Structures are given as C-alpha cells and as structure tokens.
Amino acid sequence: MFAEPRTDAPTVLVVEDEWLIAEALSRAVRELGYRALGPVGSVAGALAALDAETPDAVLLDTILGHESSVAVADRLLEEATPFAFFTGYSEDDLPRRFKGCRVLTKPVSEASLKAELKALIT
C-alpha cells in the first residue's frame, strides 16, 4: 500500500490510450508522490483536461487510438508545459518539430520514470 500524495503535490497529466498501461503509469506516478491527473486516452480528452487544469508535467503517448497526439504536443509547447512523449517509438519517429523533446520509452522502469519526472518538474 502506498501513501496518497499531498494535495499540493505536483500534478502529472497521464495521456495514454491503453487502459492497463494508463492505470499502471498513473499508479506509479502516485507512488512517486505526485498527483496523477487522468489518465485520459484521447486527443479530445487531453485537450479538455488541459482546459480544466494546468498540470506541472505531462506524459504523452504518441498515438491515441487511431490518432496522433501532435495537437496535444503542439499545445504543450505553445504553453511551455513540460512534457515527455511516452512511447514505444523512437525519437526518430517524431515529426521534425519535436526533435529535442523528451522521450520516455515504453516499457519504463520505476527509476527511469522517477528521473524523468524529476527532470520535468524542477
């Protein structure tokens, strides 16, 4: 059993369409002491979540169902919201404008997730 994060803990929006992965990632985020927002599994859901609350960081799957998450990534860049692509693809598979963005490769270890969140939320 893990302790619930403080209500003032940094918020991480989890955008992942595969339910089991989304739930496991959200749980891992909470276990690391952050407040998980979501998970949400669609571009529309992610944009609605961003309309409702500004997270401290976002973990963003590159493909949500049959649609690309580039609209979400564009908004995150525009709003200067820290994020990492959470994907099974390589950085080379991302559109050119996202070169240099952070990429957290699936499957992710707890140590890698912890380090990535620390890097995003400083």
TrEMBL record:
Keywords: Phosphoprotein. InterPro entries: Bact_response_regulator, CheY-like_superfamily, Sig_transdc_resp-reg_receiver. It holds the Pfam family Response_reg. Residues 11-121 form the Response regulatory domain. The modification 4-aspartylphosphate is found at residue 61. It comes from the Bacteria. Coiled coil: none annotated. This is Response regulator. The lineage of its organism: Bacteria, Pseudomonadati, Pseudomonadota, Alphaproteobacteria, Acetobacterales.
